[in-house]
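Hi Y.,

Following your request, here is the sequence exactly as I used it, all 150 residues.
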Amino acid sequence: MHFAIVVFGNDVREQLAPYDGNIIYDEYDEKKYNSDAKWDYWTIGGRWSNYFLLKPEVVKKRGLLEKALHGKKDSFWVNTALKKEIDWDNPKMENKIPYGFVKDGKWFDIEDFQKNWNDKKGEKEYDELYLKTLKELPEDTRLTIIDIHM
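Below is the corresponding structure, written out as tokens. Let me know if you'd prefer a different format.
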């Protein structure tokens, strides 16, 4: 299964490394499993490519070509951006809450909060934590959308 994860910070690879679910072999060729595994492979964007909407002034500042905007002069979607560059006020960005997020190397996902798939209270607690964490981030924090496979 594929899930959307947002990584806060520049060091995506380092923050995801502790959750690698690939089998490794020790010096005696014995299989080792990571009990903290959350994924077996990941890619930036993937099924959730173009997750973040840039502010119009950022698009102009970056000098992005209209051709790349597919004729839409008022929007540009990306896989990674600084918090301050994202158009959080645009209705298209409302209620965009990923399956999980990683901040300072610590993994959070909705399953940590839900007792079962219909647990609306757990889902609400997770959503609130994500939004609170996002709000408290410094404006120059990089956000990257990751497609993980479990």
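The beta strands are 2-8, 24-25, 31-32, 41-44, 52-53, 77-78, 80-82, 100-103, 106-109, 142-149.

Thanks again,
Q.
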